[in-house]
Amino acid sequence: MATKKQSGLRSTGKRKRAIARVSLKEGTGKVTINGKELKAYLGARISYEKKLNAPFEITGTIGAYDVVVNVQGGGIAGQAEAIMYGIAKALASKTATNRNSLKAAGLLTRDSRIKEMKKYGQKKARKKFQFSKR
Asked: Which of 12, 70, 73, 94 could form a disulfide with 17 if both were Cys (CB 3.0 to 4.6 A apart)?
């Protein structure tokens, strides 16, 4: 059974509850997230679009790669940051100069903060129900 050779750069990015599988291929700069165009997926959220393009701006490769992303879990903010982290990891694996510039910008540091679990007998993770003495 012959397998198809994967071309391009692949990486995984995580943030909060979001997991993004990122694939970069030499191209024109087209970004596809879960089968949709970038503008259709993010809507009018320009700040998230800037976050996604930050690794390309830092490495000077704007428009050099086509990005295909499969992301699931979390909200739109967590997903955008997971995609950014995945793109940064993929570009860092390409050359050492990319890695140094991305590391200096802080894009290769995984933000491990996630929501704390709710405890039983409490309203939320740390918030309690109102106490009544009488």
From this structure: 73
CA distances from 60 to 26, 86, 103 (A): 14, 17, 15
Model confidence, pTM: 0.85
Q: Cα separations (Å) of 16 from 38, 113, 121, 132?
A: 21, 6, 25, 36
Let me know if domain 9-105 sits in CATH 3.40.630.30: no
Q: What is the pLDDT of residues 67-80, one digit of tens each?
A: 999 999 999 999 99
Look up residue 19 and give its DSSP letter.
E
Lookup: tokens for 100: 């140094």
Paired residues of 13 in beta bridges: 20
Tokens for 123?
A: 């309203």
Taking a C-beta distance cutoff of 8 angstroms, is the pair 112, 55 a contact?
no
